[in-house]
Amino acid sequence: MAKVKGNSPAPAAPANSVKPQKTPKKWLKHLWENYPFLVMVFPAVLVVFLFNYLPIYGVLIAFQDFMPGDPIFSEYTQWIGFGNFTRFFTDVQFWPLMKNTFLLCIIGFFIGFPLPIIVSLMLNAMKGKRMAKVLQTIFNGPHFISLVVLVGMLTLFFGRYGLVNNIVASLGGERVSYFLEASAFRPMYILSSNWQDFGWSAIIYIAALSSVDPGQHEAAILDGATRFQRVIHVDLPAIMPMVSVMLIMSIGGLMGVGYEKALLMQTDGNLAVSELIATYVYKQGLTGIPDQAYATAIGLFNSIINVILLIIANTTSKKFSENSLW
Amino acid sequence: MASLTLKDIKKVYPNTEPVKKPKKKKNNDEPVKEKANLQITEEGVVAVQQFSLDIADGEFIVLVGPSGCGKSTTLRMIAGLEEISGGELYIGDRLVNDVAPKDRDIAMVFQNYALYPHMTVYDNMAFALKLRHTPKAEIDKKVKEAAEILDITQYLGRKPKALSGGQRQRVAIGRAIVRNPQVLLMDEPLSNLDAKLRNQMRAEIIKLRHKINTTFIYVTHDQTEAMTLGDRIVIMKDGFIQQIGTPQEVFGHPYNLFVAGFIGTPQMNFFTGCKLVKENGKYAVDILGKRIVLSEKQQAALSAKGQQPCDITVGVRPVHIQADSQGFTGKVDVSEMMGSELHLHLNVQGLDVVAVIPTVGLDLEAHSTGKEVSFSFDPSLMHLFDAQTEKNLI
Ligand SMILES: Nc1ncnc2c1ncn2[C@@H]1O[C@H](COP(=O)(O)OP(=O)(O)OP(=O)(O)O)[C@@H](O)[C@H]1O
Ligand SMILES: [Mg+2]
Question: Which residue of A159, A237, B366, B375 has the fewest CB atoms within a 10 Å radius of its CB?
Fold first, then answer.
């Protein structure tokens, strides 16, 4: 989301609303006429510039042999071109990192993307509107749990002496350390993420659903549609534009998983699956003997993949439907 | 096609919020409050009550009345979109109070069209048939037939967004008629159209009526639509039926002051403060300082009822007022030239009286603003309403 906000530095907006101005003089006049809008948008542009654009110049170190403390530009700067990148591609960790990140994200996407849509459609179709509101509020709750607390909860439930193991043990079963099991990492990670965010992500669809003309539902009732058919033929098409926008954005952010949660859940037992590009970047850049140039190169590579995915998703969507981000 | 019977239908919208207790204590002695002309009782808002009507097979019924009188509510109860709080609704001889809307074999045209925006016109019309698993070939035939009737064949491939208001309205009607419903309900279908298109569509609906075989129930607040379309008109006010009758009946013999004022443009003139008197065994009316003896027919009707002399309000339609040098005099306040006729707003002893006078061979100068004019009306065309009950005396 932050990316999208950043991508629309709004001074273009007022200019777009009027016919393109040709001469510089006219353009200045045009700016002058719209100055209240420009003033309003200025703080946002400033923030985006300071925190999103200015740091971009730091990626230059990805192309340098850089040691922490070095200035980015100096006479001693050693430019090594794509050296850091080739080093990553030949790193033994490269393929496992790619695979781990991709699998975690793609499975998470296939579960996490449809879930809020289904939940919002179901909440919307509920007869008891008050009940639906209560449920929606309850579903939003977990979103506000911090990652550290969430992982703490996971250990309480799935740790060796956690709830699940206690129940299993009391029934005479073996205790399993889920955090040491590589196979348990992805299910725990993905399901807890979805549990935390499905209600929150549903909000945007619920808002879109509330604008559906009730007359359409009544028309469908008279046409003989069942409740389920009405969801399929009236509600779902109404949120379809929203779904495609969200789809494009999710695909664009597909490989952009953060390092925090994986790092919190990481143990020696599950390292083989829990080491992601993001955690690797973190470790390379900030722990041990920091190799910030290398970490930056990996991070940049990851971002480029995301941009490419976003462009592909948007172009495809533009081609097959009327919806696209740009 | 089916007949419909509505027996003492009632609709109460239950209070969504519980009645506040302190308020209740204050108004302990009057549980029924009158708010915005609607009865608000303990159970909720009574939107429609004592609604009884027999609708014949293939009849065109128009529900008409001012905003908020319960027309839509009645229609929606027939459609099954709104629960019926009391009374019985029969379609044919089947009691359908608790029958689901889709099993009532009813179609409805909505005021805002309510077309499915993501479907083409064709799919919009075919939707109901598809849900019924009608064979494809048959769907195709029926949709094309309906499109033919409504002259929208060339738009079948378009989405509703790409249609004009009038075309969308046709599609909405098309969607309703493809499945040959027993009853076709229309809730103010023309009110979103501009005046010209509305006239055109009105004519289309009249034509449509002869092309398809179904019972029509049509809601409007426009009395012109009601008069031109309806076999019978049901005039409603505050949830009650005021009168049911053919257009001629409600125009020629309104049951009460409300109907008299509602039907006909310009509105009927009302002369308040008149008196019905009996003189030498004959009924006469004291109006604006003159005594007018009633016609034979009126005499007979009044004596048959044994009507006592009383205070009355006299109603006279503007078109029934004619120039007459012997009659009442009034000053012209406003003179509106409408082409074939002249609408005169006269000030007659402080009352505003509207007269519609044909312009053929008329001296326009003598009827301009500020001029004195004399007029009268045929006593047999006077409507007499009891001043208390507001009911028509005859
Ligand atoms: N859901 C509801 N809850 C409570 N009261 C309602 C509800 N729907 C309608 N009413 C009330 O019932 C009365 C009748 O409403 P209805 O919609 O039938 O009027 P109408 O005759 O169709 O008016 P219009 O010509 O403006 O469409 C109105 O006074 C309205 O306030
Ligand atoms: Mg209405």
Answer: B366
